[in-house]
Design goal:
The complex is a heterodimer.
Chain A lengths: L1 E12 L2 E12 L3 E5 L6 H8 L7 E6 L2 E2 L5 H7 L1 E3 L12 H4 L1 H4 L2 H6 L11 H11 L18 H14 L4 E5 L7 H16 L3 E5 L3 H7 L2 E6 L2 E6 L1 H6 L1 H9 L1
Parallel strand pairs in A: 3-8, 3-9, 6-7, 7-8
Antiparallel strand pairs in A: 1-2, 1-4, 4-5, 9-10
Helix pairs in contact in A: 6-7
Chain B lengths: L4 E7 L1 H7 L7 H24 L4 H27 L6 H18 L4 H20 L7 H21 L18 H24 L1 H18 L4 H27 L10 H13 L5 H16 L7 H15 L4 H10 E7 L1
Antiparallel strand pairs in B: 1-2
Helix pairs in contact in B: 1-2, 2-7, 3-7, 3-9, 3-10, 3-11, 4-5, 4-6, 4-9, 4-10, 5-9, 7-8, 7-9, 8-9, 10-11
The chains are: A alpha/beta, B mainly alpha.
The structure holds adenosine-5'-diphosphate and magnesium ion.
Chain lengths: ~250, ~325
């Protein structure tokens, strides 16, 4: 069943066309990859879906409902959560306190049961649990350090933990592997797979193709705002236009 | 500075020991923790008694509390929410007129009219500021500065609420003790209440908006709604101050929208040190009496006042409270590089 359908999505910044007539569908439980050279419009696509910028044309249908034009917090509360390519932690708060904020949201309170930290749960404990889930060592000092002092690897995990706190139906990861070392990526991949097995549908924007192809069975490539091909990783990599876009870039 | 050496700051042993909740093992450590708070609370509660012989300075104490409330409101909005609000006098005016109206037309006694005027006034101010919430920085600041100016002109032009004469014959307090202790206790309660709020989950969300509003939106939280709540709390403090003033002066009028109520709290926050609310109160405690003591200088008063302010800000830009807090919890020594 289709969870998210995007129809003829377009976005213009002044005279520049950042996205042009994008169509795609993602089914429930799937992991889909989106690739494309820098500046091809991947982040803009995410921003349109999540309501951070207004699309100029097209339809975005999530669970049968057109969500184009809704405010970002409304879209999150429907269950679409995204990470930021450039991490956005609350630098002046300890890492685990960063998660109190998503746990305070209507979605976490409604869907989380005791994990929502409502009247009967302790949000601090839930936050520490979530951090442990994404790979912060529970017994160490790391969860208590100011987020502003954490290295990239932990910040990426923190972005992911923020989404987990929101019980996502659809998780959109904007380059979570970039800036990480090989071993860090190797420890993140099982995490993504585990999430997917627990029923979360995932869209991954990635430059690290090898790691992406391990988890995503279907990939879409865009270049200069146009969708050029969609298919299995092998089909996409065999496509002439993709080779050209990557080699030309 | 000596060459080849640098100054190092180290937490005092007692600070480290008393940081952990379970580590309190001696009266000295408990005293270390409680001393600053006791000094503040005790000072405020004893002040009306100590000033018994100086009725004039009792009035100054009231003004200190009024400015402390306004400075707390400014500090809260600026350093917790990230909104620079120059509309302190608007809050005071709305609270003042509100209390006067409630007292004269609904016959409410000060004990009812003050909290009620603070509540209704805060709701009113929040509603009016709602369209400005998406604005940031200097844009928000300049709009909030406009509100009191507009309010005075509208009241003048339409001769509302007694026009330029204001509303007379507002009921006063039954006796000076009630007058003093009502405000002093309210100030302390509001200070600790607001500090409490800042560490609750809602407080964290508010701080999150200042740190990184996009992330808060991506967390499914309506930031306009949260900011509106924060404005409500700040406006409550300001309206409370205004409502109280109306009952002390037994009058509500245009001078309640005076620029002083917007500007002096900012000076107090800067001198005392922003970001802790305590600093804002300390600033008011220092600046208001200073300004009174300088009356001897006659017309040059404002010059001397400004000079002192400038010197303090240039020398201790971090704010006095932050400086004192550092001295209290850390010591310094020179180390070889
Ligand atoms: N807010 C914006 N204003 C103007 N142009 C933008 C904005 N955001 C992105 N763009 C432009 O849109 C194009 C796509 O950018 P982006 O979506 O960030 O690419 P990607 O994430 O694929 O690297 C780029 O040419 C970029 O300059
Ligand atoms: Mg991008």
């Amino acid at each position: 069943m289709a969870l998210l359908t995007v129809h003829g999505l377009g976005k213009k910044f002044g005279g520049i066309t950042a996205l042009n007539n994008i169509d795609f569908t993602i089914d429930e439980g799937e992991i889909m990859g989106i690739i494309g050279p820098n500046g091809s419009g991947k982040t803009t696509l995410i921003n349109c879906i999540t309501g951070f910028i207004r699309a100029s044309a097209g339809k975005i249908v999530f669970e049968g409902r057109d969500i184009r034009g809704l405010a970002p917090h409304r879209i999150v509360n429907l269950g679409i959560c995204r990470t930021f390519q450039i991490m956005r932690p609350y630098a002046s708060l300890p890492a685990y306190k960063n998660l109190i904020i998503p746990l305070y949201s209507p979605r976490a309170r409604k869907t989380g049961g005791w994990r929502g930290g409502g009247r009967h749960g302790d949000r601090n404990i839930i936050a520490l649990d979530l951090l442990e889930e994404v790979g912060f060592e529970r017994e160490s000092k790391v969860p208590y350090k100011l987020a502003g002092t954490l290295p990239t690897g932990y910040l990426k995990r923190l972005e992911l933990a923020r989404c987990l706190a929101l019980n996502p139906r659809l998780l959109i990861c904007d380059e979570v592997f970039s800036g990480l070392s090989m071993s860090e990526i190797a420890s993140m991949v099982p995490l993504i797979e585990k999430l997917n097995r627990s029923g979360v549908t995932i869209i991954m924007i990635e430059h690290r193709l090898k790691e992406l192809f391990r988890v995503a069975k279907r990939v879409m490539a865009i270049s200069y705002g146009d969708k050029i091909v969609e298919g299995t990783p092998e089909e996409v990599m065999a496509n002439e236009k993709v080779k050209e876009a990557y080699l030309g870039a | 500075m000596k060459t080849g050496k640098r100054r190092e700051r180290i937490d005092r042993g007692i600070k480290v020991r008393s940081d952990g909740l379970y580590a309190l093992s001696s009266w000295r450590e408990i005293a270390y923790l409680l001393a600053p708070r006791t000094l503040l609370i005790g000072g405020f509660l004893l002040a009306p008694l100590l000033l018994l012989l100086f009725p004039y300075w009792q009035k100054v104490l009231l003004i200190v509390c009024i400015y402390a409330l306004l400075a707390m409101a400014f500090d809260f909005l600026a350093n917790y929410v990230g909104l620079v609000c120059l509309g302190g006098s608007f809050f005071v005016g709305v609270g003042g007129y509100g209390a006067a109206l409630l007292n004269k037309y609904c016959g409410l006694a000060p004990f009812l009219s003050i909290p009620l005027a603070a509540l209704l006034g805060a709701a009113f101010c929040t509603l009016l500021l709602l369209p400005c919430l998406p604005l940031r920085g200097v844009y928000f600041a300049i709009i909030t500065l406009m509100y009191p100016l507009m309010a005075t002109r509208i009241i003048e032009a339409f001769e509302l609420f007694g026009g330029t004469n204001g509303m007379m014959d507002v009921a006063g307090f039954a006796n000076p003790w009630i007058e003093q202790y009502f405000l002093v206790t309210a100030t302390l309660l509001l200070l600790f209440g607001l500090r409490r709020l800042a560490v609750e989950d809602l407080g964290l969300v508010i701080k999150g908006i200042k740190d990184n509003d996009q992330s808060v939106r991506a967390s499914g939280i309506n930031i306009t709604f949260i900011k509106a709540q924060a404005i409500f709390y700040a406006a409550f403090l300001g309206c409370f101050a205004g409502a109280y003033l109306a009952h002390v002066y037994m009058w509500a009028g245009l001078s309640m929208f005076a620029l002083d109520f917007s500007i002096i709290p900012i000076a107090a926050t800067v001198v005392g040190g922003g970001g802790s609310l305590m600093g804002a109160v300390l600033g008011a405690v220092l600046l208001v009496p200073l300004s009174e003591a300088l009356r001897a200088f006659g017309p040059l008063r404002i010059v001397v006042y400004s000079l002192i302010l400038t010197v303090v800000i240039v020398i201790k830009g971090e704010g006095l409270l932050n400086y004192l807090a550092r001295k209290y919890s850390q010591f310094e020594r020179w180390v070889e590089i």
